Amino acid sequence: MVLSSTCFKFNDKFYEQVYGSPMGSPLSPVLADLVMEDLEAHCIGLLDFNLRIFVRYVDDVFTVLSVDKIQTVLRVFNDYHPRLQFTFELEKDNHINFLDTTVIRDGNALITNWARKATFSGRYINYHSNHPDNHKISVITNLVDRAILLSDPRFHVSNIEIVRKILTNNCYPLTFINKHISKGIRRIKGSDNTEGKHDQHANNNLVILPYIKQYSGIIKTKLNRLGIKVLYKTVTYHLLPLEKDQIMVEIVDHIFVLPVWSK
Fold it and tell me: What is the largest CA-CA distance in the chain?
């Protein structure tokens, strides 16, 4: 019943979803993963040869097999269900992209490098934007993690230079960039464990405040001295319109009040 009665409202009109799991439902990803696990086990079981490597993330698959076996694998997977149809991409010059990596055939070994999609704009939180510094530091940390953890050591130096260029284009000062890139690299190499240390009582006293540049730092310092941890939330949602159509209370199917009569 839940999976076959999905409807939604758009521009004051109601629509019914006629196929598939409910859009936006927390159940849908679980069902999708169950289907993909069954598809994987079923289809691989039908093959009369072994796949040397088979890696799947949701519906993206990386595999290694002989060229003459490609059409066989494609046919078996596409026969699973008419609405689940796969395409394939071959390596080019010993390179092929998979998720956020480029897989490179290096002799008899496979190595990886950090990959950016063709649509990658390089835009992140601008240094001059009204965000707390820890958000900007997180941008650097995440970029360093990708540059190092997704790539073979031979690419680390060039990838870090790419990170510096991306951050410079987003107006980050070079001293700020170098400081937090160095901290990120030390953390990855295990020589800097300070970021992983937290006061065991910190989470017992926690407040979440809107970030206001002129005052938030002062308030945080004073509260930290009292043993209170401060997290920030942005206030941009006040500036953005509500995209979803409003539904009148009179027609929703939720129970707001259930009166109780005593005999």
Answer: 84
| Residue 177 parent element (H or E) | helix 174-189
Full domain range(s) for residue 257: 30-113+250-262
Residue with tokens 């269900």: 81
Measured CA to CA, the distance from residue 253 to residue 258 in angstroms comes to 13
Provide the domain count of the chain.
2
Tens digit of pLDDT for each residue in 150-205?
A: 999 999 999 999 999 999 999 999 999 999 999 999 999 885 555 545 554 445 68
**Cα separation, 58 vs 62, whole angstroms:** 11
Alpha carbons 186 and 221: distance in angstroms, whole number = 27
HSE-CB at 28 with a 13 A cutoff on CA atoms is: 10
What is the distance between the alpha carbons of residues 66 and 228, in angstroms, rounded to a whole number? 60
Identity of the residue numbered 79: D
* Helix/strand/coil for 50: coil
Give the pTM: 0.76
Place of tokens 């990855």: 188
Structural domain includes residue 21: no
Looking at 144, 169, 189, the residue that finishes a domain is 189
